[in-house]
Design brief:
Length: 431
């Protein structure tokens, strides 16, 4: 049977597709834009028919019928990197699974198998292949092991390249629904973030390969990098800032010592302009997270610079990037992967960049603290943090004694908190 005939045979409705999912199934959808909202909504409509099932969602960007649902032990929602459902996660309505994003494809090896995979894809090509578009992540490895692979075909999904194709013969059922893709507007950096961005740019040499996240600080760093030459990109997520650097000729990937001439990533999230730029662009290649986020792969790239953020750092250099005390806020993502990989790269650098203060209901607080809040999730250990950057400067912590770490971190803390930090450090006999 040719691919067109198979396509026609497997084409169905969303309700009929999810009716194939058996009780006691574990269901997974991709990161962010690749999630199939039509199939997810159909699944939500029949969730009461399950006595035991779970759905894993990483970076929830579509408003589905699961949103604001109550805790249900018969149908467990795992929001492992929560955005829209953060409040419900903090209230204990949902579960989450800690872990490096690069390790997620290996979960079946550790006893947690997802037997149903659902994703959005670009329309099938003439050879019978679907491009997973903007989300390759862990979905492809799991699809190869799943009992059911359900696809929402969407003509709005860009056709991208790399190791992110599924053949029609591997698909159980498919639907067509050309919904608008989730987008994320560019975040303009504030004045502090612009200063931080310049400090980051000063650490990046011509010919370096960079990893940037999303938000004000990465955008500020991208703006500050506009005078650099021949930068490369190997990153977990592609954002608009990278598109801008490419279009300005700053990013060429020519100097990359591993996978030269192409930008390597695992998913994309940003504006429609970003998605249009990625469509049919052979110079951007998507691979699963167990490749892109593998520290051994990252370490093969000379002059690798990873840029991530954190929510709180103590005076020893421990970084909490996931929680406010014991209350979950976000997820490890690829921070731990890229910090470790960059540290093992020849001439590599890992940077944790953050504003020195945050505004809370109790007023302004320092993000550099003597001790992390009780129950805080440590994302990056004090052994792995290299550069800490705030609007007040750069602290290089690798190889430094506790006395020296305290001095350097206090120097980049907000001036209003430095005396108190010094006093607390003396009380704790850190200095």
């Amino acid at each position: 049977m040719d691919s067109k005939a198979m396509y026609k045979e497997k084409l169905t409705t969303a309700d009929q597709a999810v009716a194939l999912i058996k009780d006691e199934s574990s269901i997974a959808v991709p990161v962010a834009v690749g999630q199939p909202p039509t199939l997810i909504n159909a699944l939500a409509r029949r969730k009461d028919q399950f006595t035991r099932a779970e759905l894993l969602t990483v970076v929830d960007v579509y408003p589905t019928l699961f949103h604001n649902s109550d805790r249900d032990p018969a149908f467990i929602l795992d929001y492992s990197y929560c955005i829209a459902q953060r409040k419900g996660l903090q209230e204990g309505k949902y579960v989450y699974t800690p872990g490096r994003l690069g390790d997620v494809p290996r979960w079946p090896d550790w006893g947690r198998k997802f037997n149903v995979v659902m994703f959005q894809a670009a329309p099938m090509d003439s050879h019978g292949y679907f491009s997973l578009g903007l989300s390759c992540d862990y979905t492809l490895p799991w699809a190869r092991q799943a009992d059911l692979v359900l696809v929402q075909v969407n003509e709005n999904m860009p056709r991208t390249f790399g190791q992110n194709f599924v053949h029609i013969s591997e698909v159980t059922a498919l639907i067509e629904d050309h919904v608008p893709l989730a987008t994320l507007p560019e975040v303009p950096p504030n004045d502090n973030e612009k200063i931080i961005g310049q400090y980051i740019a000063d650490l990046v040499e011509n010919g370096s390969c960079i990893q940037l996240g999303i938000g004000g600080i990465p955008n500020a760093a991208a703006l500050a990098l506009e005078n650099k030459k021949d930068l490369g990109i190997h990153t977990e997520m592609v954002a608009d800032s990278m598109r801008v650097l490419w279009e300005k000729g700053v990013v060429t990937n020519r100097k990359k010592t591993f996978m030269p001439d192409v930008m390597c990533c695992t998913f994309a999230l940003g504006t429609r302009e970003l998605y249009d730029w990625l469509d049919d662009n052979p110079m951007v290649q998507f691979y699963p997270t167990d490749f892109v986020n593998n520290p051994e792969v990252i370490a093969r790239i000379d002059n690798m610079v990873s840029v991530n953020s954190t929510m709180e750092m103590d005076l020893s250099g421990q970084a909490c990037s996931e929680s406010i005390g014991h209350i979950p806020y976000t997820h490890t993502g690829g921070q731990a992967d890229f910090v470790l990989g960059a540290s093992r790269s020849k001439n590599g650098k890992s940077i944790l960049a953050f504003e020195s203060t945050a505004v809370t209901k109790d007023g302004m607080v320092s993000k550099i603290v003597p001790h992390l809040k009780p129950g805080s999730f440590i994302t990056t250990t004090r052994y792995d943090v290299q550069y800490a950057v705030t609007e007040y400067g750069v602290a290089q912590l690798k190889g430094q004694s506790m006395w020296e770490r305290v001095k350097r971190l206090i120097n980049i803390a907000h001036p209003n908190f430095r005396d108190q930090l010094r006093f607390e450090a003396q009380q704790a006999h850190f200095i």
